[in-house]
Amino acid sequence: MLQVLPALEAGGGGVERTAVDVAAAVVEAGGTALVASEGGAMEHEIRRAGAEHITMPLATKSPLGIRRNARRLQRLVIERQVDILHARSRAPAWSAYLTARRLGCHFVTTFHGTYGHANALKRLYNAVMTKGERVIANSEFIAEHIRQTYRIDPQRVRVIQRGVDIERFDPERVSAERVIQLANTWRLPDGVPVVMLPGRLTRWKGQGLLIDAVARLGDLDLICILVGADQGRTAYRRELENKIASLGLTGRVWLMDACDDMPAAYKLADVVVNASIEPEAFGRVVSEAQAMGRPVVAARHGGVPEQVIPDRTAFLVEPGDPEAFAEGIRQALSLQSYGRERLAREAIEHARRFFSRERMCNRTLAVYQELLRADAYARMSADGQAGEDGRDGGGRKTAGSLTEG
């Protein structure tokens, strides 16, 4: 099985992480897992999983580059006898589609987002993601988007929601020492409730919205931590810093860079917020927080609502409304110890049952097996026909038919 994606940069999001997880599952199931991309910091995770990475300039969007990559993929597919090509992004998908069409191997795609589709040209470019024999949507929200926008046969669509590493995001496995170390690194005062928004610094993640919400909670003693790298968006970071200062929130809202120990960060938090202004395809922060037993306050759109049990594991609020977020945070912080314990138990059980990495990988492998079983059935049918008319599955005369002549 060969997965294709643009790159394997750390912190890139669901495309990279899911590719690594699925590659590991294929190897564990006894298959050969190949991943082709331009490479990056997560290459070592591919190798650690027992899979193989092939460096290829798959991020290019130029038609000539896509054609060249198709030829490279065709050589690779033939040399390594690839059965299934799985594309996780549009530019590599075009090269993979051309390869699969020419060589006859299976072609699978995964929609990791809605993609820009404002005009006909963009929809045409995006449409390659609908050409898979099976089209995987990473949430029910994305599945509905595919059906409405691209009008494909719903029988080809499979919903496989993102999976969380339940062993890593397990509150029982996060030691007090790890939490204390992170609290000291961040210089958090003792006993002050922590409201946390994890996510790279980009406007649509809603950091500015959360700052406005915190400004409405002046009567509460809390610290709000925005955790995430700016990835070069220094102007947006400065904008947030200026907003914090102008609202008099210096000391109450802190900007922290990317954290290497997110399980400890979640355990530090009293409330985890997903304030995305635009609908997220899935929004894995929500499932990670639930797996850690933390109350979630999140916008009621995109793939988020299908991850939670409203008012039991999360408080869903109106998207883009700072007043609604303020009220949601107030509700979450007002939970008494018994209510927090009950929420934590239910959230952990819910995440483990429906949003584990193992469940996601098993369902992906089931899609692959679905296609491979169809191959086996076709071969059996061809062999049966050969027995009846004296020809093998390739149309050649069989030994039995030769003796009859």
Plain-language structure description:
The protein has 405 residues and is α/β, with parallel strands linked by helices. Helix content is 46%, strand content 13%. It contains 15 helices and 13 strands. The strands form two sheets. A seven-stranded parallel beta sheet has the order 3-2-1-4-5-6-7, sandwiched between helices. Strand 6, helix 6 and strand 7 form a beta-alpha-beta unit. The longest helix is centred in the last third of the chain and has 33 residues. The protein is elongated, with a radius of gyration of 24 Å. The C terminus is likely disordered.
Shape field:
elongated
Q: List how many beta strands DSSP finds.
A: 13
Distance between the termini: 43 Å
Strand order of the largest sheet: 3-2-1-4-5-6-7
Mean pLDDT: 92
- The whole-angstrom Rg is 24 Å
Give a quick account of the main beta sheet: strands, pairing sense, barrel closure. 7 strands, parallel
Strand % is 5-15%
Helix proportion = 40-55%
Keywords:
disordered C terminus; alpha/beta; seven-stranded parallel beta sheet
